[in-house]
Amino acid sequence: MQLKANKIGFRYENGPWLFRGVNASIEPGEVVGITGPSGRGKTTLCRILASYESPLEGEVTLNGAPLPKKGYHPVQMVLQHPEKAVNARWKMHRILNEGYHPDEEMLDLLGIKQEWLTRWPHELSGGELQRFCVARALGPDTRFLIADEMTTMLDAITQAQIWQAVTEIAQKRKMGIIVVTHESKLMQRLCHRVIEI
Question: Considering Cα of 14, then 3, then 154, then 137, what sign does the dihedral take?
């Protein structure tokens, strides 16, 4: 199963092109980094790959077919700011079970404590909340995970724990990962190759 961007381009209304003619592909089990100067559209490219945005030019395909419009999406994205990705009016167990029901093994691997499940989002730290966002994105039907500055705001220990868990799960499932980060050491350690836009 291959996720592929074919000559995609994007710009906001009446603005300059963020990028044009971008070709990118990722295979199962592969970790690919996306790099480029600030403002070049790395996050927008990720949003297009995850179907949050539509390109103005080109297309994104999964195994040669358009990305699905309904059901659990095989491309999941974890954002830099977890508090923006959850419903503040829901307790964590409801947020976690929104798409599927993670097993205890995954929760343990990600360091999610059972007592956190009955808390509100504002009662958790950024690192604790991000662990939930990662768990929610790693559903059984996820084939590609996009990590857009996923651990940038977290302390070094939490970063290492989350990335260790994510890479372990990805290796078991042959899941592809797209990494966007300004941390060159992290990208060198994780990625098989890097795409520059």
Answer: positive
The helix (run of H) or strand (run of E) holding residue 177 is strand 176-180
**pLDDT tens digit string along 128-140?**
999 999 999 999 9
Residue 169: enclosing H or E segment and its boundaries?
helix 156-173
Cα–Cα distance between 53 and 105 in angstroms, integer? 33
Q: Cα–Cα–Cα angle for 53, 54, 55, nearest 5°?
A: 120
pLDDT tens for each residue of 149-169: 999 888 999 999 999 999 999
| Domain 3-196 CATH superfamily | P-loop containing nucleotide triphosphate hydrolases (3.40.50.300)
pTM of the complete model: 0.93
Which amino acid, one-letter code, is at 168? E
